[in-house]
Design a protein that fits this description.
22% of the residues lie in helices and 20% in strands. The protein has 160 residues and is α+β, with helices and mostly antiparallel strands.
Length: 160
C-alpha cells in the first residue's frame, strides 16, 4: 500500500502526463507547416530527452537536407512539452508562451519540462481527429511502465 506522500507524488506525475498529452507532439515526428519548411521546430524524431546529443540533418520528403539541428539544442519533444506545461507563463521577453514556435532551440527550458522529457519517453501520439479523439502513449523510464492518455473532449454535432 502506498503512503500518503507516495500517492500525492503519483497523482502529481499523472497530472503532468495528462497535461503533457495535450502538447503538439505530432511536431516530434512530422513537419507540418508546408508553407514554411525551414521552421526551427522541424521534426527531429527524438522522443526522450531535452537536448540534442549530436548534430541531426533534417530532411525533406525527397531526402534532401533542409536544416541541421545542432548538438545541445532543445529537442522538438522538449519544446512541445515546454509550450504546453508553461502555456500560462511569461518567457524572458515578457511575451506569453502560446505555441511551440515561442520556444527557441536555445531557450532555457524549465526544470519541470526537463524532468518530464528525461523520464517519459514519447512512444506514440495520435493528434486530434475530426471526432475530437486523441491519445498519447508514454513509457516511464523510472517505473518501467507504459502510460496511455486518451482524450475526447471535443464533440461536433455534425459528426453524430
Amino acid at each position: 500500500m502506498l503512503t500518503n506522500k507516495e500517492m500525492i507524488k503519483r497523482f502529481r506525475d499523472y497530472a503532468d502526463i495528462a497535461d503533457a498529452s495535450y502538447a503538439m507532439l505530432h511536431y516530434v515526428y512530422e513537419s507540418i507547416d508546408s508553407a514554411n519548411p525551414n521552421k526551427a521546430w522541424l521534426a527531429d524524431n527524438i522522443s526522450l530527452g531535452d537536448k540534442i546529443k549530436k548534430d541531426i540533418d533534417i530532411m525533406d520528403k525527397q531526402g534532401k537536407a533542409i536544416n541541421t539541428k545542432k548538438q545541445g539544442e532543445n529537442t522538438t519533444y522538449a519544446r512541445a512539452i515546454e509550450a504546453r506545461l508553461c502555456k500560462e507563463m511569461i518567457n524572458d521577453e515578457n511575451k506569453q508562451i502560446k505555441s511551440i514556435n515561442d520556444i527557441s532551440l536555445q531557450a532555457r527550458i524549465s526544470q519541470r519540462t526537463k524532468n518530464f522529457v528525461n523520464r517519459y519517453e514519447l512512444v506514440h501520439h495520435i493528434p486530434n481527429t475530426l471526432s475530437g479523439y486523441s491519445s498519447t502513449i508514454f513509457y516511464d523510464m523510472h517505473n518501467k511502465d507504459y502510460i496511455i492518455a486518451f482524450r475526447g473532449t471535443e464533440s461536433k454535432k455534425e459528426i453524430m
